[in-house]
From TrEMBL:
Keywords: ATP-binding, Cell membrane, Kinase, Lectin, Membrane, Nucleotide-binding, Plant defense, Serine/threonine-protein kinase, Transferase. GO terms for biological process: defense response. It comes from Artemisia annua. The keyword ATP-binding applies. It is found in: Cell membrane. This is non-specific serine/threonine protein kinase. Residues 36-45 have a biased composition (Polar residues). Its EC number is 2.7.11.1. Residues 24-45 are annotated as: Disordered. Pfam families: PK_Tyr_Ser-Thr. Residues 81-362 form the Protein kinase domain. It comes from the Eukaryota.
Length: 426
C-alpha cells in the first residue's frame, strides 16, 4: 500500500444487496448545490466536476496550506517517476517517494513526501481524488496524514502527502519479516487512530471515513498513527437525517454488516471497522484469511464470542506479546473490541468514548504501577455537545471485566461487586 494508503480491494456484495442499496440511494440521497462538499456523489456530471476544479483552484481561503504543484515539479521530485522510487501500488494509483525543497520552488520547506499518481482510467478514481483534496485540504489533525499539495493538469491527477517513515500498520502487523509490535506500541497506535476518527466524527459537519483498515493507518518515525486515503470519505447526516444512503464501498472484512446490507452509512459504521482493527492488533491475525481453518477465516466471527469470556480471551491474544501486558489491560481492550463489533449499531460506543477508554491503557501498558492497572474503565454514557452526535447518546455502561476490587461508577445502580461482570448493560 505504500506510504499514502492506496486501496486494495472493495467489499463484495451480492446483486440483491447492490440493487437494494441502489434503490435506497435513489430515494434518500440528497443533492447539494455545486460545491466540493459532496464530491463523492457518483451522480456528479463530469462537466460539473470541471467547474468544481476551477473553484478549487480559486478557493485560497479553505486551502491556504495546500500547494498546487505543476506536473513538471512533481516529475522533478520523483526523478520522472522512476521505478525505484515506487513506495507502493494499489487499485487507484501508484505511490512514489520524493523530496521537495527550494530547488523545486522558491520558498518551499525541505521535506520528504509521498506522491500518489491516480490511474487515468475510470471516473471513480477522479472523484476519489477530488474527495481527498476536499477533506484533507480543509481538515488538520495530528492523527490525519497531512496533504501537502495536489496537481490537476490536463488528465493528470496527483496528490502529495507528508512522508510516513514506517509505512502502514498492515505491514508491521502481518509481514513475517517485521519484528512484532509491542503491546504498548499497539495500544498507542489504537489510541492515535481512534483520535483521528473521533476528530472526523466531531467535525462541524461530521465526516464518515468509510475505509478504516490497517493498510490505511500510516505510522511516522515515532509510531504515531495517522489516517490516510480519504477517497471514500463521506459527509455525515445532517438535521433529522439518521444516516447517509450511499453505494456500498470499502474493504471486505472491515465494513459494518448493516452498511453492507442496506447502504445506510453512519459514524457507527466506522466504529465497527475500528473494532476489527483493534481485534487485529490484539490477535495479530488478519480480518479475513482463507488459509486458516474454515471456522477461523473470519476473524470477527471466530474471536468476538471469546472477547467477553474471561476464560477464553487470553487465548486469542497474539502469542508474540508473551507477558508484555497486564491481564486487566487485556480484558479492558478485549471488552472495548467486543462492544465496537456489536451487530446492533446503537450498541456501539462513540469514538470519543473509545478514546477515553484507551487512554488509561497507555500508562498501564508500560507501567508497573498496579493502581493504574485496576482503575475503572470509562463508561459509554456521556453525550457529545458538538455536531450531531448528541443523537448518538449511549444508554448503557461498559461491561467491566476486571476482577473484584476494580470497582464501578457509583452512580450505576446496577453495579455489584465481584466478577465476572460487575457493570451490566442497561
Amino acid at each position: 500500500m505504500g506510504n499514502c494508503g492506496t486501496r486494495e480491494e472493495s467489499a463484495v456484495v451480492s446483486d440483491a444487496q447492490v440493487k437494494q442499496q441502489q434503490l435506497n440511494q435513489g430515494v434518500l440521497e440528497k443533492k447539494h448545490s455545486r460545491s466540493i462538499s459532496d464530491l463523492s456523489d457518483p451522480s456528479t456530471p463530469r462537466s460539473n466536476i470541471a467547474n468544481v476544479l476551477q473553484d478549487l483552484r480559486n478557493n485560497s481561503l479553505l486551502y491556504t496550506h495546500v500547494i498546487a504543484f505543476t506536473l513538471f515539479e512533481l516529475e522533478t521530485i520523483t526523478k520522472s517517476f522512476r521505478s525505484d522510487y515506487i513506495l507502493g501500488e494499489g487499485g487507484f494509483g501508484t505511490v512514489y517517494k520524493g523530496y521537495i525543497d527550494e530547488n523545486v520552488r522558491v520558498g518551499l520547506k525541505s521535506l520528504p513526501v509521498a506522491v500518489k499518481v491516480l490511474n487515468k482510467e475510470g471516473l471513480q478514481g477522479h472523484r476519489e481524488w477530488l474527495t481527498e483534496v476536499n477533506f484533507l485540504g480543509q481538515l488538520r489533525h495530528p492523527n490525519l496524514v497531512k496533504l501537502i499539495g495536489y496537481c490537476c493538469e490536463d488528465d493528470h491527477r496527483l496528490l502529495v502527502y507528508e512522508f510516513m517513515f514506517r509505512g502502514s500498520l498492515e505491514n508491521h502487523l502481518f509481514r513475517k519479516t517485521s519484528a512484532p509490535l509491542s503491546w504498548s506500541t499497539r495500544m498507542m497506535i489504537a489510541l492515535g487512530a481512534a483520535k483521528g476518527l473521533a476528530f472526523l466524527h466531531n467535525a462541524e459537519r461530521p465526516v464518515i471515513y468509510r475505509d478504516f483498515k490497517t493498510s490505511n493507518i500510516l505510522l511516522d518515525s515515532d509510531y504515531t498513527a495517522k489516517l490516510s486515503d480519504f477517497g471514500l470519505a463521506k459527509a455525515g447526516p445532517q438535521g433529522d437525517e439518521t444516516h447517509v444512503s450511499t453505494r456500498v464501498m470499502g474493504t471486505y472484512g472491515y465494513a459494518a454488516p448493516e452498511y453492507v446490507m442496506t447502504g445506510h452509512l453512519t459514524a457507527r459504521s466506522d466504529v465497527y471497522s475500528f473494532g476489527v482493527v483493534l481485534l487485529e492488533l490484539l490477535t495479530g491475525k488478519k480480518s479475513v484469511d482463507k488459509t486458516r481453518p474454515s471456522k477461523e477465516q473470519s476473524l470477527v466471527d471466530w474471536a468476538r464470542p471469546k472477547l467477553n469470556d474471561k476464560r477464553k480471551l487470553l487465548q486469542i491474544i497474539d502469542p508474540r506479546l508473551e507477558s508484555q501486558y497486564s491481564v486487566r489491560g487485556a480484558q479492558k481492550a478485549c471488552s472495548l473490541a467486543y462492544y465496537c463489533l456489536s451487530q446492533n449499531p446503537k450498541a456501539r460506543p462513540l469514538m470519543s468514548d473509545v478514546v477515553e477508554t484507551l487512554e488509561p491503557l497507555q500508562s498501564s501498558s508500560s507501567s508497573s504501577n498496579e493502581v493504574s492497572l485496576i482503575s475503572p474503565v470509562t463508561g459509554f454514557g456521556r453525550p457529545l455537545v458538538t455536531g450531531n452526535h448528541s443523537a448518538y447518546h449511549m444508554h448503557h455502561k461498559f461491561v467491566q471485566t476486571v476482577g473484584a476490587g476494580a470497582g464501578c461508577r457509583s452512580a450505576n445502580p446496577n453495579c455489584s461487586p465481584g466478577p465476572p461482570a460487575a457493570c451490566r448493560v442497561r
